[in-house]
Amino acid sequence: MTELPAGVPSTLFIGGEWRQASDGTSFPVENPATGEVLAQVADATAEDAMAALDAASAAQLAWARTAPRKRGEILRAGFEAITARAEEFALLMTLEMGKPLAEARGEVAYGAEFLRWFSEEAVRIYGRYSTAPDGVNRLLVTKRPVGPCLLITPWNFPLAMATRKAAPALAAGCTVVIKPAALTPLTTLLFARVMEEVGVPAGVINVIPTTHSGAATGPLFTDPRLRKVSFTGSTEVGKVLLKQAADGVLRTSMELGGNAPFLVFDDADVDLAVTGAYNAKVRNGGQACTAANRIYVQSGIAEEFASKFAAKVAAMQVGPGVDAGTELGPVIDAKALARIDEMVADAVAGGGRVLAGGAKLERAGYFYAPTVLADVAADARVLTEEIFGPIAPISVFETEDEAVELANNTEFGLISYVFTADLARNLRLSERIETGMLAVNAGVISNPAAPFGGVKQSGLGREGSAEGIEEYLETVYVGIGDPFAG
Ligand code: NAD
């Protein structure tokens, strides 16, 4: 059994103190590669969540008044510290979430980069000053932090989803209560410990792992001190939170589910498209909101693409993420394993052909063979639902119009992938596909300097880039009477 890195916290972090839950309860965090318990983590109650909001509210004014340069320098120190401890973070993430170490290292670099990016944005919060069109009044537009924020994160990217929210919030001058997913709370706790060490004042970051999310965080939504909720997770839970947020008319950012189409046209470089599909599908075991969910290939190259892609997927080295050379780790838990197994069975029952994989692996932990399916019926669950596993259904299309129709035939609109050598086609598709992000001849495009987010039921708001900090700022207009009057 691989040991946890030393010094990983397992308690709540509230007002600068590391402490047990108010009712003394804790919950186990499992290693999905073995089913073994890695740690017992304090299980926050509603009382603890309220204490975290108390702490965030108490720290809000002083943090908002801390010089932007100072806020930026603390974030930059966080970036340096996480980068210096990259191996420790990577191992921890692999142990609690399952992804291969090489991918965990990639997430450490990506997650830390949000701290560096927003350390630079902290000093670039601008307003404007202008003369009203009638020449009388002066218009001053300024920005201020929205106030204490609740940040709710999913289990699939335990570091990056926390930093993608906390970094812009802190840069803007907001304090935060982070509720990580109960499946992977340890990485977020270690992140908070590092930020404490680099000088984030008590109460500015609070972390409340809990197994009863709704009961613990529900009361915060009706407390007028909470000003914003930023959520990454399923569309289903996002809708519940949007309804709860309506009562307090809270600012919300919602990064929700996806059902990404991956379109390959006859004129594409097939090998490039195969590599792109592989990266977009199996990275993180397919457990990414950006995962290619539905692969549509134009008929002229469909057979070549399917055979090359199936061969590449079938050759993957599957095993615990800590093992050298592992390319695919386990899925997150027994429930996820059962769900994808049912989805594959449903596709096969509807006429789908298995080109690779197609079954659970009989070993400890939650492993599913990387799977490629062809001839899947249009109403199969693998095409209509977010798969969240290493399953790739390939379908064939004939025309660009048909491809657009297929791509848009979903309530989601997070990311879409297009492989074609035709620039004009790319531009047409960028206007026709209903998506928040379009990847052109690339399998991975997430970047802290780019606005990440979806349209339709994939969400509201953007994270990263210059847009990311706006989510944590209020616009205030100051109207000034004619300075030449009287
Ligand atoms: P989930 O919706 O089950 O949970 C997300 C978080 O919400 C967890 O911390 C969970 O504990 C919490 N939660 C659940 N019910 C709650 C409630 N009533 N009140 C408060 N908190 C509650 O999602 P998940 O299984 O952790 O993550 C997978 C989903 O996340 C997928 O749908 C995926 O597409 C989505 N996701 C989206 C993005 C994005 O940026 N758009 C990124 C990563 C993951």
How is this structure best described in words?
With 486 residues, this protein is α/β, with parallel strands linked by helices. The protein folds into two domains: 262 residues, 3-Layer(aba) Sandwich (Aldehyde Dehydrogenase, Chain A, domain 1); 187 residues, Aldehyde Dehydrogenase, Chain A, domain 2 (3-Layer(aba) Sandwich). It is 40% helix and 20% strand. It is built from 15 helices and 20 strands. The strands form five sheets. It has a seven-stranded mixed sheet, sandwiched between helices. It has a six-stranded mixed sheet with strand order 9-8-7-10-11-19, sandwiched between helices. α5 links the parallel β7 and β8. The longest helix is centred in the first third of the chain and has 21 residues. It is globular, with a radius of gyration of 23 Å. The N and C termini lie far apart (81 Å). 53% of the residues are buried. The mean pLDDT is 97. The protein binds nicotinamide-adenine-dinucleotide. Nicotinamide-adenine-dinucleotide (NAD) binds next to α7 and α8.
- Give the count of helical stretches: 15
Ligand inventory reads:
nicotinamide-adenine-dinucleotide
Number of strands: 20
Q: First CA to last CA: what distance? A: 81 Å
Judging from the principal axes of the Cα atoms, what is the shape? Answer: globular
The CATH topology of the largest domain is what?
Aldehyde Dehydrogenase, Chain A, domain 1
Q: How much strand content do the residues show?
A: 15-25%
CATH-scheme architecture of the largest domain: 3-Layer(aba) Sandwich
> How many structural domains does the protein architecture include?
2
